[in-house]
Amino acid sequence: MKYRTLGQTGEQLSSLGLGCMGMSFAYGNSDNTQNIATLEKALDLGINFWDTADMYGNGANEVLLSKVLAKHRNKVFLATKFGFRYKEDNSNPQNSLESYIDGSPKWIKVAVENSLKRLNTDVIDLYYAHRIDPNIPVEDTIGAMADLVKQGKVRYLGLSEASAETIRKAHAIHPIAAVQHEYSLLTRELENTHFQTIRELGISLVPYSPLSRGLITNKLDVGNLEESDFRRQLPRYQGDNWKNNQNLAQAFSEFAQSKNATAAQLALAWILAQGENIIPIPGTRKIERLVENAEAVNIDLSTADLAEIDMIIAKYPNVGARYNAQQFAAVNH
């Protein structure tokens, strides 16, 4: 494994982190025995940057991670998030649409204690605001998060899906170490809206869904997705968008094969090539996919390779939106 520095903290994180959401949330049923084996394999591979959140399975994902952290806490740089709260009448915790955002100082105090307890740890290495609450001044949210640093409950602060303007405001109150945002070959808006701000402020970008939720791997069949899989709600997996994306994934996979790589490896290598301040967190529940992804850090792409990838993507422009309208309403505040 290779390592990159988190923001201006000096912390050395694996160039690929591990997104743990799918082990407990959004992608249908999973096997916790398999999940734990995958987490332990991540440590064997030197993947020391793990990402979770309190909303993943309504806390279940944090509890899952605690089972491995109990013996290996000093080997893991642990990130979790607060902000989404489930409605009290919610009967289906797999459905993130039955939640709301709370960035109030009052809730932050409760949320961090809940996460520390579930994770069975004394400190969270990186604590994100999962979404920005438009009804709470960001100064109040960041002020309350900064208090957690002073209290020793949190080491570094992060924001997820925040606008560039909000990132600047937040960073002026307390240093922001990382900004998490969806970023992949199919989701590149950040290059025009966020990159300059993030680099100027010395912040790391932590892309989630770097494989476009599996789409770019050319191994996904929408018809085989479980009914509870939230990808069924997304425009990219529907109608003409899906037809376009199947063709795109096939063409990209063929180019990857010509480079003696899988599509997943090439897509991750592409992200890593976009800047040393970028640390993607591909998620998986399977050891074989974890091992496959980890090899991406050893792939060097030439200028010609990068140009060829851009040409392939440009041939199939109708990829569709990454979220539906209701989900978009929560981002970029």
TrEMBL record:
Coiled-coil regions listed in the entry: none
Domain NADP-dependent oxidoreductase: 16-313
GO cellular component: cytoplasm
The keyword Oxidoreductase is assigned to this record: yes
SUPFAM superfamilies for this protein: NAD(P)-linked oxidoreductase
Domain of life: Bacteria
GO molecular function: oxidoreductase activity
Keyword line: Oxidoreductase
Annotated protein name in UniProt: NADP-dependent oxidoreductase domain-containing protein
Organism name: Acinetobacter gerneri DSM 14967 = CIP 107464 = MTCC 9824
